[in-house]
Fold:
Amino acid sequence: MTQWLGVALLPRADHLLAAVRPQRDIGGEVSLRPRLEPDGNLPHVTVFQGPFTDSLDPAEALESIATAAAGNGLRGEVSLSTTNVVYQPTGWLFLALERPPLLEALQEAALAALDRHLDRTAFDRDKDTSRFTDDERASYERYGYRYTGPAYAPHVTLGRAEENTALELVRTARDRAGLPKEMVFDRLSFYVMGEHGAHAETLLEHRC
Structure:
């Protein structure tokens, strides 16, 4: 049975609301989806997500990822600077974050632990990738996920809207919301994917 799961960094408890608020402020009368909640669909930074076979043991995999990441400097809290609200085709709004080598090493550790458990028969081979970059297209072809390797783009997803609406919201984002200058993350999560890949349910957590 295929399981749609992901690995993510979660904000420290006192930063959860700061991560949720920009979606409300920027969206205004527009209901960006999926709706973020501090006790529901959690704001997060996806490290990797996709379809997995029953061979995957999430606890074993998360421990392996955390151990490898610790060896590359991920020990304790991780503070990441925000860069901007950006548009991503089609219709997505992202709160973009810096991409330090520590995050690149974290994703490499995740791919090393998870690659062999991917259910590649579940990849959507009919997906329209015409607006992906070349790196995103190569990432999707290999892993079924758009943002790995050179295409890795750390971000907190603020939601999705109709295309023209999303472009307008990105253009006016700084007028609508005070954005946090940085966000602090203190946990790795193995989660169940929900609407549009949302962090719908936490399976396991591991302190950074």
In short: The chain is about 30% helix and 30% strand. The beta strands are 3-11, 45-52, 78-88, 92-97, 155-160, 182-193, 199-207. The chain has a mean pLDDT of 94.
